Amino acid sequence: MIGERLLRARAAAGLSMEALGNLVGVSANMIKKYEHNQSMPASGNLIKLSKALGVRSAYFFRPVKVELSGVEYRKRSSTPAGILKRIEADVLDQAERWQELANIWPVFPVASFSIPSQLPDTVATMDEIDTFADQVRAAWELGSTPVHDLIDVLESQGILVIITEVDEMAKFDGLQATVANQPVIVVSANWPGDRQRFTLAHELGHLLLHGRLPPELDEEKSCNRFASSFLLPASAIRRQLGTLRNRIENQELFLLKHEFGLSMQACLYRANNLKIINDQIRQSMFIQFSKNGWRKKEPGAEYPKEETRLFQQLIYRALGEGIISESKAAELLGISLMRFHQSRKLEATDAITNQ
């Protein structure tokens, strides 16, 4: 029955029963009956529902159903509950398409997530988090150079990354959950790249540090330290800035940001954490940042946004290997068959960018 899927799609669209009913030409009470599986919409109304909600008709009959478990938000106190519901609905939709694709493959060519075995059982201090982050990099053979495509690194390790368009006003700070025993990290498409990357690394910290921290270490602060350590290793920032400074030029922070994908403010904190600069210098620079308005918007062009391409690549690979049809590929991508044909022929290179 379509009731639960209709309810989820309506939540994702941010529509009330009355608003959706007006778009379809039925009463709010009829929408309620649809959602409670007390009535089945006629084919014409089903098409209208699909158009109003921005989904394909096949969405209502998708065979795969998944649940988010262990949902943890890095949310701001101002995040409206309605936005969180829309985000969860969007995440469930994308996760279901992932799972359906995985079920179609005879052997799904994506590794399952596993925590590196060589990591220590306990991380007792903030300074030890730097070492821990270096050990994760070593286990994943990342060295100490910039990670330019963090999503690709996470997906190659079996972590599902979902980018949601729902967060138009950038009101939430990320989401971590589990779908079918696979860890999921959700970020917004509307954030600048450095914020996306810090959130991805922060949530990775939660995933890897869970159960390893003593009670006296705050987990959120520890994961912030992990994020900055993972994105900008101590050896790398010391190569760039030296080991002890009495002054740092803003341009140095700007260059670090665009090399390592970490905000200027986070780079400044990183330099202070490693005692390259003292607290007084850090505070003085933050005062200058505030005067310049850089605490809200840093100077220059934004760091490029992260993108996820694995889902698209696997769909085209499945198509090329004869595992799925064109219509199934279009359905999984959530686009029309005509639009899929254009994309397949490279007639619309921006046809699919939100998976």
| Low-pLDDT windows of residues | 351-355
| Number of beta strands | 4
β-strand percent reads 5-15%
Query: What gyration radius follows from the Cα positions, in whole Å?
Result: 23 Å
Decide which structural class fits the backbone.
Answer: alpha+beta
Overall shape: it is elongated
What's the mean pLDDT score? 90
User: SSE string, helix = H, strand = E?
Assistant: HHHHEHHHEEEHHHHHHHHH
CATH fold-level name of the largest domain: Arc Repressor Mutant, subunit A
**CATH first level of the largest domain:** Mainly Alpha
CATH architecture of the largest domain, by name, is: Orthogonal Bundle
How is the largest sheet built, in terms of strand order?
1-3-4-2
Count of separate DSSP helical elements: 16
Main beta sheet = 4 strands, mixed
Euclidean distance between termini CA atoms: 26 Å
Please bin the fraction of helical residues.
Answer: 40-55%
